[in-house]
């Protein structure tokens, strides 16, 4: 009998890129969670100017969870509650050598996304889904 593999969670949404003058521009994005990478979430930005290829950022699922209610993260990825006239959002700040970007993400979208990820891999059970032997074999194969 084979074990049932949990499936990937993916949610299509629209984020808002906050420009320096405080205007916000919509950006198509996908939130993705793969149980084979149980500690991480991935945000794929579907930018038309990127030649059709999505731009992906990966960071800790726990960072996203914490950022729903309090500031979280240092360095390249920071997340915090963002309440404004349009409702409850979460701020997602990304930094790279190429520049910085600040996005508004609807809080309700992140809550639903995280609930779905926790139904696939419950919080605190990420190690149950790690294939350490496979990871070591891949690392050693590159030598």
UniProtKB/TrEMBL annotation:
Localization in the cell: Cell septum
InterPro entries, A to Z: SsgB, SsgB_sf
Keyword tags: Cell cycle, Cell division, Septation, Sporulation
Keyword Cell cycle: yes
GO biological process: division septum assembly; sporulation resulting in formation of a cellular spore
Record flagged with keyword Cell cycle: yes
Name this polypeptide is given: Sporulation-specific cell division protein SsgB
Species this protein is from: Dactylosporangium sucinum
């Amino acid at each position: 009998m084979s074990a049932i593999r949990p499936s990937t969670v993916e949610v299509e949404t629209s984020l808002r890129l906050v420009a320096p003058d405080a205007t916000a521009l919509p950006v198509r994005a996908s939130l993705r969670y793969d149980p084979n990478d149980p500690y991480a979430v991935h945000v794929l930005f579907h930018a038309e100017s990127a030649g059709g290829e999505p731009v992906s950022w990966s960071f800790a699922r726990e960072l996203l969870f914490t950022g729903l209610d309090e500031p979280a993260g240092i360095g390249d990825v920071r997340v915090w509650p963002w309440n404004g006239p349009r409702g409850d959002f979460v701020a997602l700040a990304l930094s790279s050598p190429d520049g910085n970007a600040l996005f508004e993400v609807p809080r309700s979208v992140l809550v639903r996304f995280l609930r779905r990820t926790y139904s696939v891999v419950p919080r605190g059970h990420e190690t149950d889904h790690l294939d350490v032997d496979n990871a070591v074999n891949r690392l050693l194969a590159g030598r």
